[in-house]
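The methods section describes the discrete structure representation at length, but only in general terms. What matters is that the chain and its backbone geometry are given together, residue for residue. For illustration, here is how one protein appears when written out as sequence plus structure tokens:
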Amino acid sequence: MTSCAWFVDRYGGPERLQLRGRDDSPPGAGEVAIRTAAIALNFADLFARAGVYPNTPRPPFVPGMEISGVVEAVGPGVADLSPGQAVVAVPIFGGYAERVVCRASSVFPLPDGADLAEAAAMPVAFLTARYAIDRAQVRPGETVVVTAAAGGVGTALLQLLAIRGAKTVALVGSETKFALCRELGADRVGLYAAAGRPDALADNRCDVVIDAIAGGMFRPLWRRLARGGRYVLYGFAAASGKRGVARLRALRELSAMGLLVPFAFVSSCRTLVGFNLSLLPDRLTELREMAAGIFGEWQSGRIRPVLGPRFDFERLPDAHRALASRKTVGKIVVGIRSGS
């Protein structure tokens, strides 16, 4: 049997994605084979395609961080998943394929009747958001600034922060995204330029910043932190360009972040936290427990993934271009027709 997958034949822009057939391999010990229904895109996929994401394989390789689908087969030692079961998976690499084989530990069972397109958009966005909120120790009534608030993680953050009772300030790149942020619970909404203005925050201070942009956004938001404030950094979207990473822009944005003197954290009583969930394999048990709670809240209707543009599998490079434009909202999802 054979199936198709998108390969990166050389690091670079979307044109480096090549659709090819390959032989299907059976799952090995501790592995699961999944017939893919939907693929959700992440900025990490753009950085992997460009060869700058941590642990990116050498070309040729198949990128793709998260998928949904149906279990086709399980390997020896897999007892809690079975053929025909609907699942989501976070393989980190290898997801841009009609059939994906990955570790069973990266696979999460779905509730009965789950929408597979929505499901694909859940794990990375909501696990990142929940982990960031927990690391920031957000308390009810605190003011939290969220950058990239209309993106996949941003829309998840707004919903989870509203449930926690926080007051949120959503920062986005376009006024066309304001209404969505308000709908999801943001108390105030502004453009990125507002980050350096006193009127962006009710009292000119915030308790927490959760930031996916970094670069030139960092210093003005860092200065807005109140004593005891926490800054959580989980991305560097400021460095992104049409081909993945714009290297000169990345250097400028890194320079704009400036230098922090560790001892100054003592007198300012501020905390800086950075994380990348794909680099925390020792937290797998914690993340699986977190995922179970997230899927439960999704099933109850308390939270929902915001879906952005949808693309057919054959147009996956165009989906990359749309994400790189930073003009979309929510999660971009690529669908695979059954029988492809």
Notes: The chain has a mean pLDDT of 93. The longest helix spans residues 284-300. The domain at 128-278 is CATH 3.40.50.720 (Rossmann fold). The two ends are 13 Å apart (CA to CA).
